[in-house]
Amino acid sequence: MSAGVALLPVEQRRAIRAETLASFRRFAETVLRLRPRLRSIAFQVRRGYRGIQHGLRYACDATPPAEHRCGDVSSWCNFCEVWDTYLPWTSWLDGWDERPGNAEAFLAYCKDDVTFTTYALVRRARGNFLSRCLKLTDPVSVEIVAPLLQPWFEPDGAIDQIVQPSAELRPWLDAVYATPAERAPKRALAERLVAAGDPRGAYIVEQLATDGLDRGKTSALGAHWAEWLGSLRVVVGPSGMAFSKGFPEVVSACFASDAAVAACAEDPAWSTVEQLELLDPRDFPLREGVFIDDIQPITRAMRSLQVLDGVRSSGLRSLEALGTELPLWRLGAKLASTDDLERLLRVQCLPELTSLDLEIEFSMVPESTVWKQLWDLAPWGRTLTDLTVRVVAHLELWSSAPARPGVRLIHSDSAGWLELEANEGGKFANARFRARTRDLDGLIELLSRLPSLEQVELDLGQRALMSADEQAAFEHALARIHPVARLVTKEQLASERTTFS
């Protein structure tokens, strides 16, 4: 909580809350009037890792006593939600959060804490029989609910439950960690464990005879995963790991606190991990619990990493400061600010990087040399062969900048998922679109903002095929904005591939 927020007078906080709830009420009354079926709407206001966020949490066709009539307060609920194309994911409410301090003060009034989610719940009463007959407006009440809901992550392995290997086994484990790709140290460790009656010995022997990944569904790993992960159990749950040759190779982890970092980030057990996904705390269920930090330590102990995904600001700082080179060939990162982008371009520890996947989470206005900066002038300019960038805004500017072949540009909105790929001439001339709805007017509007296209591949997914009239109408609209563009449906592509083969 910033000092400016904490020092706001109580009366001013009350006025801000009243103003905010009035904004919620006005918006809700409009939605409820247009959607008579809805009985309640919950608005979310929270301080997250991207700053102050707000928007619609869910809409429900009942008046629930709590957040969800099904009793699930931890996550999105398909049973209760009745979203349609009218209801937006985020709704700007009279610009109340654009005035300095308003959103901060609104949150501060509810509860002074580091971070939390608060909900304004709109309930529409059903009214009496007379009011329904006369079609009078149902009364709307707005109240604050769930004043303290926090993202929470706590895998089964608490720090105080970590079992350290015995002094007798330590040298054998250290030999494995020193050369994680070699089989001989693992075989020697397995023999030692078998002789001691440890079930992991037989498990390692069995794993050495296979080449696949084991997630513990039918093997001994299912019963012993926490013990065999060692200190890594603090940040890894049973559904977030896979073993190979008797040791963890694929891991999804969330470092929930500084204590978790201290307990395991430098553990040599990381040396066998080749694929690591750093989980986003914002994706975890909201429930009462201890607040977690978004910490992403990438350390020298993780020296075998080949694939690293989910990197955010904290992880970029770790990579920038890392003095040890990693054999990473693929990196997936989410950039929340220009600082993150600049920090990424200063990373020097990835000499073998060939594939880079970036999600630009902020409204970045790219320069004409943006692709040159991300590829040619970047530290990985000589090794990179594949670059994917996902953008939320200014698609026309991104697609106008000259790019190298192999660059993919992706944009997703309510209409669907659009992918552009640079051709040999450096132009984004081919587009692939996966529709979320049968209404393709949004796609036409989107395509109208792009440079000249040569081909548009259209995928309607599981929806019914386009009729001849619908395809002709779409081709006519496409010809007006991209005269040389050819429309190809998924079915036509499949037919062409079958004919060719």
Question: What do these coordinates show?
Answer:
This protein is α/β, with parallel strands linked by helices and 501 residues long. Helices cover 30% and strands 21% of the residues. It is built from 16 helices and 17 strands. The strands form two sheets. A twelve-stranded mixed β-sheet has the order 5-6-7-9-10-11-12-13-14-15-16-17. A five-stranded antiparallel β-sheet has the order 2-1-3-4-8. α15 links the parallel β16 and β17. α2 packs across α3, α5 runs antiparallel to α6 and α6 packs antiparallel against α7. The longest helix is centred in the first third of the chain and has 25 residues. It is globular and about 75 Å long. The relative contact order is 0.06. The N terminus is likely disordered.
